[in-house]
Design brief:
single chain; alpha/beta
C-alpha cells in the first residue's frame, strides 16, 4: 500500500511535491503503490525512483512528468496522457497502458515486458533500447518513433503503425506483424526472424540504410510472399532471392534471365530490363548488376550459369560481337550439361536472318526468334513484350 505521508505531499500539489523530491532525491524512494490517482492532474510531477506498482492512473494527466527509474509493475495507465513524459530506465512490466498517449515521450531503456499498450499513442516517442518482450501493441501508433535497439520479441504489433519509424538494430524475433505498416520506416541491422511478413504493409517503401537479418524461418512462414526490393535492400543475396519462392514451396512465376547484348543496343537493353523487373522477372545485365572489382568474364559466366534463360538480343551489332558469341557458347554448354533449353533469342533487326556468322546462323536455323525490330514504336514494342512475357512463364523444363 502507498505511504500515506508521501500521498499527502502529492495531494498538496506539483510544486510542493517536486520541491520535496529535489531535497530527498537520494535518500527517499516514494511509495505510491496501489494509490488511486485516476483522472488526477499530475502534469510535470517528478516521480523519479517512485514505487507506482499497481497504482491506478487511468485517465490521469501526466504530461511532461518524470518517471526516471520508477516502478510501474501492474500499474493501470489506460487512457492516461503521458505526452512528453520521460521514463529513462523505468520498469512498466505487466502494466495496462491501452489507449495511453505517449506522444513525444522519452522512454529510453524502459522495460514494458508483458504490458498492454494496445491502441496507445507512441507517435514520435523516444524508445531507444526499450524492452517489449511479450507486450501487446496491437493497433498502437509508433509512427516516427525512435525504436532503435528496441526489443519486440514475441510482441503483438498487429495493425500497428510504424511508418517513418527508426528501426536501427530493432529486434522483431517472433513478433506478430500482421497488417503492421512499415511505410517510410528506415532500417539497418534490423532483425526479422521467425516472423510472417506476408501481409505486412509498406515493406516495399521501407528505406534501407544498412543490411538487416531475414531468417529462413521468416521466408517459410511468409510462404515467400515478401517484396523482392525489401529483401534486396536488406542485403539478401540476389541469387537466393531468385529461388525464395521455390524454397518456400511456391511456384516461380517466370524464368530468371541474363540479358546478353552489344553495347550499341544499351538503350533497348535498359528498357527491357526495367520492364521485366517491373513484371517480377528476375533478370541481370552488366551495367546495373556488375560490382566494382568484378572480373568481368568470370562474373558473366557465373550469371549465365545461375539464371534460367540467356535472353540474347540479336542485332547488326551483336552478331559481330565476339563478347556475345562467348556468352552464347556458355549458354550452349549449359544446355548440353543440363539437357534443357537455355538460349532465348530476340532480334532488333534482320541481321541474323542473313549473317554468315556460324553461331548466329545456327540460332537462326534452330530457334524461334522473338521480333522486336520496331521496338521504338510503343505499340509494336508492347505487342512483342507481351509475347516475350508469355513465353517466359515458368513451366516444367523443356527437353532438347
Amino acid at each position: 500500500m502507498a505511504n500515506w505521508e508521501h500521498l499527502d505531499i502529492l495531494e498538496q500539489g506539483v510544486d510542493v511535491w517536486n520541491e520535496w523530491r529535489e531535497k530527498h532525491i537520494d535518500s527517499i524512494e516514494p511509495d505510491l503503490s496501489k494509490a488511486d490517482l485516476r483522472e488526477a492532474d499530475l502534469r510535470e510531477v517528478d516521480f523519479s525512483k517512485a514505487n507506482l506498482n499497481d497504482a491506478k492512473l487511468s485517465g490521469a494527466d501526466l504530461r511532461k512528468s518524470k518517471f526516471r527509474r520508477a516502478l510501474l509493475w501492474g500499474a493501470n495507465l489506460r487512457g492516461a496522457n503521458l505526452s512528453e513524459a520521460s521514463f529513462p530506465t523505468a520498469t512498466i512490466r505487466a502494466a495496462s497502458l491501452s489507449g495511453a498517449n505517449f506522444y513525444k515521450a522519452i522512454l529510453m531503456e524502459v522495460n514494458f515486458w508483458e504490458s498492454d499498450l494496445s491502441e496507445a499513442n507512441l507517435k514520435e516517442a523516444y524508445l531507444y533500447d526499450a524492452l517489449f518482450f511479450g507486450a501487446n501493441l496491437r493497433r498502437a501508433d509508433l509512427s516516427e518513433a525512435d525504436l532503435s535497439n528496441a526489443l519486440f520479441r514475441e510482441t503483438d504489433l498487429s495493425e500497428a503503425n510504424l511508418s517513418n519509424a527508426n528501426l536501427f538494430q530493432t529486434d522483431f524475433i517472433r513478433a506478430n506483424l500482421s497488417q503492421a505498416d512499415f511505410s517510410g520506416a528506415y532500417s539497418a541491422y534490423t532483425v526479422f526472424e521467425n516472423v510472417d511478413l506476408s501481409d505486412v504493409k509498406g515493406l516495399e517503401a521501407l528505406v534501407h540504410r544498412g543490411p538487416s537479418s531475414i531468417g529462413i524461418d521468416t521466408i517459410y512462414r511468409s510462404k515467400g510472399n515478401i517484396p523482392e526490393n525489401f529483401l534486396k535492400g536488406a542485403g539478401v543475396d540476389d541469387t537466393f532471392i531468385t529461388y525464395i519462392h521455390a524454397l518456400a514451396g511456391k511456384a516461380i512465376e517466370y524464368y530468371s534471365c541474363f540479358i546478353s547484348y552489344a553495347s550499341h543496343d544499351q538503350d533497348f537493353a535498359e528498357r527491357l530490363h526495367a520492364d521485366l523487373q517491373s513484371k517480377g522477372v528476375r533478370c541481370w545485365f552488366a551495367p546495373e548488376d556488375m560490382k566494382i572489382g568484378d572480373k568481368i568474364r568470370l562474373r558473366i559466366d557465373e550469371a549465365i550459369r545461375i539464371h534460367d534463360k540467356l535472353l540474347l538480343v540479336l542485332s547488326e551489332n551483336s552478331v559481330e560481337s565476339a563478347w556475345v558469341e562467348k556468352e552464347v557458347e556458355t549458354a550452349f554448354e549449359k544446355e548440353r550439361l543440363q539437357n534443357r533449353v537455355v538460349l532465348f533469342p530476340i532480334r532488333l533487326d534482320n541481321a541474323v536472318m542473313s549473317t554468315t556468322q556460324a553461331w548466329a546462323a545456327d540460332i537462326r536455323r534452330s530457334r524461334h526468334i522473338g521480333n522486336f525490330s520496331n521496338w521504338k514504336q510503343h505499340n509494336h514494342y508492347q505487342t512483342a513484350f507481351v509475347r516475350l512475357l508469355r513465353d517466359l512463364k515458368a513451366e516444367p523444363p523443356h527437353r532438347l
